[in-house]
# Entry
Amino acid sequence: MLTKLQLLDAIDDLEKSCATYQDCEKLATFYTIYNQLYGSIAPVPSVESNKEIIISDNGGSEFLRAVAGKDAEYVWQIMDEVMDTIKAFQPRLYDATLQKLTG
# Structure
């Protein structure tokens, strides 16, 4: 059985070089397998990598301990939801946070 990482690597390779009909068929097959095993996946621009990034334990805060060892993509999806909530209830805090992130 293919691992999640192997599927993502195969999808990434085919997205970069999908030159023939057979390549497109393989890509569709890999997407179908991935979606059945791990849930929906959206195509990612070929500039980005689909490699799973695990967050290391870089601090002592409760939040950093909670995310240590987790997949970064999963954590960012949750943080995006949190930011949407902050934007709705605390727009000034939202704006200040974005300002801090963008420099």
Remarks:
- The chain has two domains: 1-52, 62-102.
- The chain has five helices and no strands.
